[in-house]
Write a structure and sequence with these properties.
The complex is a heterotrimer of chains A (261), B (280) and C (286). Chain A is α/β, with parallel strands linked by helices and 261 residues long. Chain A has one domain (3-256): Rossmann fold (3-Layer(aba) Sandwich). Chain A is 34% helix and 25% strand. In chain A, strands 1-11-10-4-9-8-7 form a seven-stranded mixed β-sheet. The two termini of chain A are 20 Å apart. Chain B is built from twelve helices and no strands. Chain C has 286 residues and is mostly helical. In chain C, strands 1-2 form a two-stranded antiparallel ribbon. In chain C, a hairpin with a 4-residue loop joins β1 (52-53) and β2 (58-59). Classes of the chains: A alpha/beta (261), B mainly alpha (280), C mainly alpha (286). At the B-C interface, α1, α3, α4, α5 and α6 of B face α1, α3, α4, α5 and α6 of C. The complex binds adenosine-5'-diphosphate and magnesium ion. Magnesium ion (MG) is lined by residues 53-54 of chain A.
């Protein structure tokens, strides 16, 4: 009933027989899922609100572990190891798999300190090295020109779109291998949105990207692969052009043609 | 040691210290409650409720005078303070709203809630006790009323604000005059919240001692004349506890126990009302 | 008819609300009036002299002021770290099952009247200080400790509330960069809630300095300035509580009123700083 294709690229992540259940819930919010995530590509997750996109995304860096008694089963393979095993070093994992949230989350500190935050956590103290890395990250996030004269200013003074790019700079500064985006543009205006979209496409040169979006045009514009979720199931995963032009599943077709959702 | 393992160690240390703080905090709670219960239950007897104060050494001594005095003092403060406080809170939420006047009244009330209560005692001493020439139950009640007013006012204001404005608009749309909308719709919607505010306000003044020291003063015998000095649980507790007589100290513990249980009960009740409201 | 009732209701509620302002003004005025005799007689000596001898009509309030400042200071250094610890535990650490009960217990502890803390201090803490630290147990140190225990629950509860205002996704963002709990607390939660936390500490300070009953039992009301923390001492409210009913001359009364006025002005100032500077900013910040 589900159509999950295999990817031609190397795999950044492999999900196998995976289920996730929130604490206190009987039914899993992500059901028996097996899927690959292609390396240096963009995989979009789409589906109606409440279908489990965010839930699945937050499994990849195990941010769910901040709250007690959530249950994982199955495997998520990353660099050959199952990151769901209890002994997984979450601090290290999260430096390798970064995350961008629905709303900009600038920390209450300066622009510079925001970007340097992850580097400092890893023990980087050398000033020039920090400066170089912060500058590079800000350039890669296409926000250097707007902020280079006020690196010491409070990050909360930036506009929403700028803050979101700052958060991306902060995430890529630690050079992760995978980046998780949860509806990164849902709080932004159209111009900032297209800026972020361009940036995401550029970033796939260096990182593998999973992006949750409720906006099908966005998925079509930026992604290489698209997964359609419904009620906790991955109904279909395929190349984006196939999903939007010739979907294999009826449910997928109904969703992308706007029959529900 | 790598930087990250240092961070992890630091995290463990701080989390241990923080858990320790919570244990210490809870330790004090149990210590104080334990002391209250052990000494209080030990001192409780029927005499406490049926007998008045007596000189140290007498067998038949109790707290009847203080219990009844306390009821008078709090009762009158509540009868006066609650309606006035609710009306003033109503002004803030329904009429004054965000005006400069209303905001000033809010600010000053907030400050008054944390201001030293002994100073209120000094004020009431100056305006009532000194001119009358003697301490009195009235003076004590007035001091408590002054302390209670800002509490009732602010909670009423907050609770009325929680009533959705669509409810008001719907009533106005039916042609009801404002006072009817307030009394029949807004008050009804905020009932549980206002009641909670009243309970917490009463609980707060019930424990006040300092403003009574030189207003209602004290009396070792039953007195129901508000024109005369009047016993309260709190001042009696203070006098008995600081006395050198063991039987008086014991009565002091009984007073402390009764008072604390009363205040804790009011607080728990107030919370339950709010919870029930939220549950709906 | 309705229109008249409507007017009456509106005006009477306004009248009462405005009376609160008048009442506060009246309190200041009355205290000031009654302080005039003392101000005229003692002038600045009132706050600079150390001799408080009512029988000689000498009223130097410095020991009481000193006692207020030192006991409050002691209370703050003891209570602040504990309050932060408890708040961290309640907001970030406690298992879900304990969060509620422990939190409510702490809040109930804050509702216990201060006279109970004083009495408990007298019977249970004074002997400990006497036997293990020194002196007669009635002392500045005892007062500071009892005061700190009294303000701890209030401080912990409001600090927790301030920390709880930090949005989850802000915390998650810091975890997502590999932060530990403590990293997230010190780099994100505390900076975010800073204004609220400092504001509530200052508010607690304002309350502590005006607190009477928790310290009256254990301080001794001795007008002396001693660097020995185990020596008896006094504070402004302790002096008022002990001497108001004993005053036997106009000047004595007036001096006590001046002390009351001083206390009210100090508390008002501290509470206003907390409220207008820090807590208002905290509210705007959110
Ligand atoms: N913290 C939570 N606890 C329990 N259930 C949750 C929680 N968060 C989300 N859910 C449930 O999990 C399902 C998937 O939610 P989510 O992943 O947020 O959907 P989406 O991101 O696709 O809109 C929903 O049914 C939602 O109610
Ligand atoms: Mg979502």
């Amino acid at each position: 009933m589900a159509t999950i294709i295999d990817v031609t690229e190397d795999k950044a992540l492999e999900v196998k027989d995976f289920e996730f259940t929130y604490a206190g819930n009987e039914k899993p919010s992500v059901n028996k899922l097996t899927m690959p995530i292609a390396k240096n590509s963009i995989t979009a997750l789409i589906g109606p609100s409440g279908c489990g996109k965010t839930t699945l995304l937050r499994c990849f860096n195990r941010i769910h572990d901040l709250y007690p008694n959530n249950k994982y089963s199955g495997e998520i393979l990353f660099k050959g190891r199952n990151i769901l095993q209890p002994k997984e070093d979450l601090i290290h994992l999260r430096t390798q798999i970064g995350m961008i949230f629905q709303k900009p989350t600038a920390f209450p500190m300066s622009i510079f300190d925001n970007v340097a935050y992850g580097l400092r956590l890893q023990g980087m103290k050398n000033k020039t090295e920090l400066q170089d890395r912060v500058e590079k990250a800000l350039k890669d996030a296409a926000i250097w020109r707007e902020v280079h004269e006020r690196l010491k200013a409070d990050a909360n003074g930036l506009s929403g779109g700028q803050q979101q790019r700052l958060c991306i700079a902060r995430a890529i500064a630690v050079e992760p291998e995978v980046l998780l985006f949860d509806e990164p543009t849902s709080a932004l205006d159209p111009i900032s949105t297209s800026g972020i979209e361009e940036l995401v496409v550029e970033l796939k040169e260096r990182v593998s990207i999973i992006i949750v979006t409720h906006n099908m045009q966005q998925a079509a514009r930026v992604s290489d692969y698209t997964g359609f979720m419904y009620l906790g199931d991955m109904i279909e995963l395929g190349r984006t052009e196939d999903i939007f032009v010739t979907p294999s599943e009826k449910l997928t077709e109904e969703y992308i043609t706007g029959k529900f959702g | 040691m790598t930087h990250t393992s240092k961070r992890i160690l630091m995290n463990k240390i701080i989390m241990t210290l923080s858990t320790l703080s919570a244990i210490i905090g809870m330790g004090f709670l149990f210590w104080i409650l334990g002391v209250l219960v052990i000494n209080g239950v030990d001192a409780l007897s029927w005499n406490i409720f049926s007998q008045e104060g007596a000189p140290p050494g007498y067998e038949n001594s109790g707290l009847k005078h203080a219990l009844i005095g306390q009821l008078f003092l709090i009762g009158i403060a509540t009868l006066v303070g609650v309606p006035l406080g609710i009306l003033a809170g109503t002004y803030l939420s329904e009429y004054g709203q965000k005006s400069a006047l209303a905001e000033t009244i809010r600010d000053i009330s907030d400050i008054m809630m944390s201001a030293p209560s002994i100073v209120i005692g000094a004020f009431v001493y100056a305006i009532i006790v000194a001119p009358m020439g003697h301490f009195s139950g009235w003076a004590g009640s007035i001091a408590l009323t002054i302390i209670m007013l800002p509490i009732i006012l602010r909670t009423t204001d907050d609770m009325l604000n929680l009533v959705p404005s669509t409810l008001r608009e719907a009533a106005f749309a039916l042609g009801a005059p404002k006072y009817k909308v307030i009394i029949q719709v807004v008050y009804r919607g905020a009932k549980a919240g206002i009641l909670t505010g009243v309970l917490l306000g009463v609980a707060r003044v019930a424990g006040e001692t300092a403003p009574l020291l030189f207003t209602s003063f004290n009396d070792n015998f039953l007195n129901t004349n508000m024109n005369e000095p009047m016993a309260s649980l709190t001042v009696t507790m203070y006098n008995y506890a600081t006395s050198p007589y063991e039987d008086w100290q014991k009565l002091g513990w009984a007073a402390a126990f009764i008072l604390s249980m009363f205040i804790l009960a009011l607080n728990v009740l107030g919370r339950l009302f709010l919870l029930k409201k939220k549950g709906k | 008819m309705s229109a008249i009732i409507d007017k009456i209701f509106a005006y009477s509620s306004k009248f009462i609300a405005v009376s609160i302002l008048l009442l506060v003004a009246w309190i200041f005025t009355v205290l000031l009036q009654h302080s005039l005799e003392s101000m005229a007689t003692s002038g600045f000596d009132f706050v600079t002299q150390t001799k408080w001898a009512p029988n000689l009509e000498k009223f130097g309030a410095l020991p009481a002021i000193y006692g207020s400042v030192i006991s409050t200071f002691l209370a703050m250094i003891l209570a602040v770290p504990l309050a932060i610890g408890v708040a961290i535990y309640l907001s970030e650490l406690a298992p879900a099952k304990l969060k509620g009960p422990v939190g409510v217990s702490i809040e109930l502890l804050a509702a216990i009247p201060s006279v109970i803390y004083g009495m408990w201090g007298l019977f249970y803490f004074v002997p400990i200080i006497r036997d293990h630290v020194g002196g007669i147990g009635i002392s500045m140190l005892t007062a500071g400790i009892v005061l700190s225990i009294m303000i701890l629950p209030f401080m912990a509860a409001v600090t927790r509330d301030a920390m709880n205002t930090t949005p989850d996704i802000l915390k998650e963002s810091a975890y997502a960069l590999g932060g530990t709990k403590w990293d997230v607390i010190k780099d994100v939660i505390i900076p975010y809630a800073k204004a609220g936390i400092i504001g509530s500490f200052i508010l607690a300070l304002g309350r502590a300095i005006g607190e009477t009953m928790a310290v009256t039992f254990v301080m001794g009301n001795v007008h002396q300035i001693s660097t020995d923390l185990t020596a008896p001492a006094t504070s402004i409210p302790v002096t008022l509580a002990n001497e108001f009913t004993e005053a036997d001359s106009g000047l004595y009364y007036s001096s006590l009123f001046e002390l009351s006025l001083l206390l009210l002005v100090i508390s008002f100032t501290i509470i206003s700083i907390a409220k207008f500077y820090f807590l208002r900013r905290a509210r705007i910040g959110q």
